[in-house]
Amino acid sequence: MFHVTKAYPGDPPVLVDINLDVQKGEFVFLTGPSGAGKSTLLKLMFVAERPTRGQVLISGRNVARLRESGIPYLRRNIGVVFQDFKLLPTRTVAENVGFTLDVLGTPRELVRAKSLKALKSVGLEHKADVLPPKLSGGEQQRVVIARALVNDPAILLADEPTGNLDPRLTVEIMDLLCDVNARGTTVVVATHDASLIERYQKRTLRLERGTLVAEALGHKAAALMA
Amino acid sequence: MSVTASLSYFSRTALNGIVRSPFVHVIAVASLAIALVGFGLARMASAQLDRLMLALAGEVEMTVYLEPGTTPDKMAELQQALSQRTGGQTRVVSPAEALGRLSKELGDPGHALTSLEENPLPWSVEVTLPPLAREPEALKALADRVRTLPFVTQVDYGQEALERLTAIARALKLGSLIAFVLVFLTAIVVVSATLQLAIYSRREDIEIQKLVGATDRFVRAPFLIEGLLQGAVAATLACGALWAFAFFVGPKLAALFSFLDVGGPRPGIDPRLVLELFGIGAAMGLLGSVVAVRRFLRV
Ligand SMILES: Nc1ncnc2c1ncn2[C@@H]1O[C@H](COP(=O)(O)OP(=O)(O)OP(=O)(O)O)[C@@H](O)[C@H]1O
Ligand SMILES: [Mg+2]
After folding, report:
1. What residues make up the domain containing A138?
2. What's phi and psi for A81, nearest 5 deg?
3. Do B212 and A88 touch (CB under 8 A)?
4. Strand partners, B66
């Protein structure tokens, strides 16, 4: 990202002159207090929002200027774990996960098989045919993760992926994300959970009121947050 | 990306949409079907009228009356000119023959005619017109030209009846065309309204589809298929209704027309009409959904 500024219409800028660089295959934490602009920064990456100024380069392409018709093809390579889940209440868990594959024109049986596999990786295969509202917050969160990963994306953007999980599940999900990263997927995790940052020694970017204030590795970043 | 998988996905999504809100779809299909039945009835009526006119025109003979004292030479000349001009069969009818025919047609009282001292009827030439010249317009033009020929006093043909029928047919066709356009537009509006509701009820699906990388085409296709399905179902219903009409009401109409010896509407419906109904139904459904998708699917 080069000199990225983002202002929602009518408000002061949420992000100001952000410069950052995430390598292919890297694992990066994005942290900062609530309202700092973490979610907004992620949204710029999968073009749910466009920057007011600046460039967002993904594999060398400036997606800030991407044509509308090009957005779907970008998103097929980016798995997103939404902070607010975005699960469809009237469709089963497996159908929700399968959505990612449906839009690719994947045959029905294959969608089902892959969805079940993704659900298994988050420990929810036994809930495949349940409707999301009947799941706990943590279970719903894991469904969202399964949906983001079912397609083996090149990039995974996770917005508070462990926000609703107990410590044991948090570790499980984080280990899953590390596995995915180890298999070559670039992972960006937005979180304000200092213990995570401490535990997983990864590069950490800290946002405060729309500016990048610090960049550090594990311990130091966690110390800064204290 | 597999085309068959996408097609099956679209159809499933479309069917799902219909199952989820059957009532609005019933309304859309009903209004489409009504539009199509109206179209079909107008079509059948106009076909019937065409048959009627053809039957009438089949009897069209032009009688060209000649000045008294036209010499046989001139008559032969004229006869030839008429054959050439009309391309039909001509025959010279003498006053005596004409009188004989007339008295026969009149029956008993007609016998009195034979006792007339002098035959009041003129010489005439009868022209049996070939099919091409039987179009009312062509016929009129022909009569006008024949009237200007030398020795011709008067030209007679089934003028009045034909002209009136033509006028009726034309008014009927124009009226049904206007009505059809109005009904067509209304049906499109109804279809697009139902699909607007469908789009609204699936807005969350659409939002998430977009977030996980669906193209616009992918999001739109199920709605287009829904519109197409509405059109097809409506056409099927309309065909059924028209067939029932032809089956139950047709014979009664035929009885009504029997004095003209036209033959009533044929039983059943013309396969061409079936094709037209499906084509128009599909077009209305598709247009309605295109309107809805363009206006309400801001993806
Ligand atoms: N769609 C929007 N329109 C206007 N303002 C917005 C919009 N989305 C976010 N904001 C504003 O932008 C700022 C940053 O929001 P953002 O969601 O990026 O924060 P965050 O760092 O993700 O916070 P949290 O940790 O609570 O998720 C907030 O002040 C918020 O009010
Ligand atoms: Mg956020």
Report:
1. 89-152
2. -100, 110
3. no
4. B152
